[in-house]
Amino acid sequence: MIEGFKAESVSQVRKPIARVFRMIAEAGDNDLLALAAERSGSLNNWFKILATPTQRREALKKIKVPVMTVVGSTELLLGDKTLVAQLVPDACHFQIQGKDHSTMIPDPKFHMVVKAFLDFVND
Q1: From CA 122, how far away is CA 84, in angstroms rounded?
Q2: What is the DSSP string of 1-53?
Q3: What is the CA radius of gyration of the chain?
Q4: Buried (b) or exposed (e) across 50-87, using 16+ Cβ within 10 A?
Q5: Looking at residue 91, what is its pLDDT?
Q6: Rounded distance, CA 60 to CA 56, Å?
Q7: What secondary structure letter does DSSP report for 91?
Q8: CA distance 34 to 36
Q9: How far is the C-alpha of 76 from the C-alpha of 68, rounded, in Å?
Q10: C-beta of residue 75 within 8 angstroms of C-beta of residue 100
Q11: What does pLDDT average to in each consecutive run of 10 residues of the chain (123 residues)?
């Protein structure tokens, strides 16, 4: 993603997934260099602070704010798609059938679960 955001044009982005992120960012008229900087900082902090799987798991167990995870059933995630929701106390998890990372967001079911979660949290 970072290299995709930094490239001079989308045609210079070699990795297909990075190209998709670049095209999505361009479609939203985003500042590509700002996105690259944000991703770089996020990744550096994630790896520096939570270097091991055990540290990541322990950090998730300490979260005290409401958390909702949503994934599509065809998402290309390795492992258990519910793991974050299992580790964060009182988190909730939703899976939207037949959707993946990019097709889930416009789906009405996604908007329904996000609204329900926000209504619950705000009550």
Answers
A1: 22
A2: -HHHHHSSSGGG--SHHHHHHHHHHHHTT--HHHHHHHHHHHHHHHHHHS-SH
A3: 17
A4: eeeeeebeeebeeeeeebbbbbbeebeeeeebeebbeb
A5: 93
A6: 6
A7: -
A8: 5
A9: 19
A10: yes
A11: 87 88 84 83 60 80 91 82 88 92 86 93 89
Do residues 57 and 83 lie in contact, with contact meaning Cβ atoms separated by under 8 Å? no
What residue spans define the domains of the chain?
Answer: 1-49, 57-123
Q: Which residues are CB-neighbours of 44 under 8 A, at least 6 positions away?
A: none
pTM: 0.57
Find, among 56, 75, 65, the residue nearest to 117 by Cα. 65
Q: Report yes or no: 92 and 117 within 8 Å, Cβ to Cβ.
A: yes
Q: What residues contact 109, with CB distance under 8 A and at least 6 apart?
A: 96, 99
Residue with tokens 């008229």: 29
Q: Are 73 and 99 in contact (CB under 8 A)?
A: yes
